[in-house]
Amino acid sequence: MKSFKCTLIAFSAFLLINFPAFASDADDIANIVQTGSNGTATIDQTESPGHQNIAQVSQRAGSLNEAAHITQSGNGNNNATVIMTGDNDIGNLSQLGYMDTAMIMLSGSSHNSSTIFQDATTDSNEANIHESGFSNTTSITQSGQNQQAVISQSGSINNATITQENSSSNNNSTILQTGSFNIAAIDQPGISNTALISQNGLSNTTSIVQNGNSNYANVDQAGTLKLAQLTQTGNGNSAVMIQH
Predict the structure, then answer these.
(1) Residues with Cβ < 8 Å from 2, sequence gap 6 or more?
(2) Is the dihedral of CA 188, 192, 193, 194 positive or negative?
């Protein structure tokens, strides 16, 4: 998670430089920068008295027919950013909780779709999506508290999903996926679990479900038409699966 932390630190520094009001008691802050063509960007902030939300959409030169949407409400003090430099991509980010951080970056890509949803029960969660390639789909859904989720995906027609459920907290999930027609999914209903999927190749599928607490799961899969399913129901378990 070191790289993700560096990203968050860099993003925080950017906000302090470009939005000095972040350090005061100012109202919500919204910023949209569009330098491409036919882009659509919307920011919807529902005021939270005494708190701040910060939202930024950047659709950079070369982007075409991009659609970026940020919705922030709830208790405030959320940070959200969507950066898009490809063509015909869709980025949706919703923050309904408190002190959550989320970033979607679609770079050098086309026809990709990314969604982050942090619901009203969330507190101090972090989500990060970086996607490039063609016709990929990513989704992060976070409930609970102190959750971390990262998806990095490239290639074509891949699908990656992380779900950290309402009863859960302190979970950590990472999906790294390249290739084509791959599917990766992590579901964490438990507490203090760690899950990692690293997958590349063609038409592979990996699923991790962690129902218990303090479990560790790591799946490393490469090749063609591989299937990996890992379910942890107890506590304090550790599992590593490698298929090449």
Answers:
(1) none
(2) positive
Tokens of 25: 């008691």
pLDDT tens digits for 10-62?
444 444 444 443 334 446 787 777 776 777 878 888 765 556 788 888 877 66
Strands of the chain, DSSP E: 29-34, 40-45, 53-59, 67-72, 78-84, 90-95, 101-110, 113-118, 126-134, 137-142, 148-153, 159-164, 172-180, 183-188, 194-202, 205-210, 216-224, 227-232, 238-243
At residue 227, the 3 state secondary structure works out as strand
Residue 12 Ramachandran class (φ > 0 left, ψ -120 to 50 alpha, else beta): alpha
Beta strand pairing status for 126-134 and 101-110?
parallel
The neighbour count for residue 186, using CB atoms within 10 Å, is 28
What number of other Cβ atoms are within 10 A of residue 22's Cβ?
15
The whole-model pTM stands at 0.84
Closest Cα partner for 148 from 91, 193, 83, 81? 193
Sheet strands side by side (includes 227-232): 40-45, 67-72, 90-95, 113-118, 137-142, 159-164, 183-188, 205-210, 227-232
**3-state DSSP call for residue 182?**
coil
- Chunk the chain into consecutive blocks of 10 residues (it has 244) and report each block's average pLDDT, rounded to whole numbers: 44 42 54 75 71 80 73 81 83 87 85 88 89 92 92 95 89 97 96 97 97 96 97 96 95
Gap between the Cα atoms of 104 and 151, Å rounded: 10
